[in-house]
Design the sequence.
């Protein structure tokens, strides 16, 4: 038990040194409470065209099916909040998280470093890092690890830092000291996120109809955006920050200090005209290392044309 506490302290210290905002640890076990929620969400078709959400149902609920002998889920949060803004208020809008380098690459590198430190200083450990690209219910694990609570907008909220942070996991076959006190729900009677969503995608507390979410419509949806949403996109061409921008807890957000998340010089100064006339060459230059590449040039043009 003494070693377990020591290892846990070391891992949390290393996570801080690597730039993570939070680090919490939960026991690797079946997510019993999440099973009916996930099943209901899928049955209602709230995943839209994201067919991959139907795959690996069991693995989404049990990390021991992802890592042999898994004992611990290390949940991590990386801050991306910035007060930088696009200079032209009429320009198509892009979510804050996509201003800089692709967070998948940035966080995967940090997870590799953390696992390397564990192997070097604690011993040979079997583990895998995950960041928004595998069947892992990151918000459920972050909640179990005490990093915050799931708000009415279905984002993880933290009393000290709001919600502008990415979540990631390192699942390991190492027994650690678990954070066994989940954070209480502090949304209260507030409904600002529900009231502010222009597409009415938040259909209940912590339940989002993904097929109506602007982030889904501008990124995940590969077909044409339904005409129904023509005047409901609020100018967003990639992602959406509305439900976070109106959340009172985000008044506690602090500026990130991750150099990779700094926007390229051209991005924030582009005018509405620049976006309307964007070429594939400009797209490749501005977004060469950005998560915006996911939507491809044709997808971004589709979005820009749709919100004109």
Sequence:
């Amino acid at each position: 038990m003494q070693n377990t506490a020591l290892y846990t302290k070391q891992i949390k210290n290393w996570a801080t040194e690597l730039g993570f905002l939070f680090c919490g640890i939960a026991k690797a076990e079946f997510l019993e409470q999440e099973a009916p929620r996930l099943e209901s969400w899928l049955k209602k078709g709230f995943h839209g065209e994201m067919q991959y959400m139907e795959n690996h149902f069991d693995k989404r609920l049990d990390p021991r099916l992802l890592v042999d002998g898994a004992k611990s889920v290390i949940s991590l949060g990386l801050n991306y909040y910035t007060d930088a803004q696009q200079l032209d208020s009429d320009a198509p809008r892009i979510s804050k998280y996509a201003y800089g380098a692709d967070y998948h690459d940035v966080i995967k590198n940090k997870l590799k470093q953390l696992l390397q430190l564990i192997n070097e200083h604690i011993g040979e450990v079997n583990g895998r890092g995950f960041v928004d690209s595998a069947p892992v219910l990151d918000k459920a694990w972050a909640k179990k690890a005490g990093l915050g609570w799931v708000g009415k907008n279905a984002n993880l909220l933290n009393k000290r830092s709001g919600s502008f942070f990415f979540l990631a996991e390192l699942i390991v076959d190492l027994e650690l000291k678990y954070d066994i006190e989940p954070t209480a729900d502090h949304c209260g009677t507030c409904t600002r996120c529900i009231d502010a969503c222009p597409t009415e995608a938040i259909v209940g507390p912590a339940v989002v109809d993904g097929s109506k979410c602007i982030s889904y419509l501008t990124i995940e949806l590969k077909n044409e955006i339904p005409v129904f949403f023509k005047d409901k996109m609020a100018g967003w061409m990639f992602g959406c920050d509305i439900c976070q921008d109106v959340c009172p807890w985000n008044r506690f957000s602090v500026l990130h200090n991750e150099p990779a998340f700094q926007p390229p010089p051209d991005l924030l100064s582009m005018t509405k005209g620049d976006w309307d006339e964007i070429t594939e060459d400009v797209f490749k230059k501005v977004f060469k290392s950005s998560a915006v590449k996911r939507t491809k040039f044709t997808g971004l043009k589709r979005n820009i044309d749709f919100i004109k």
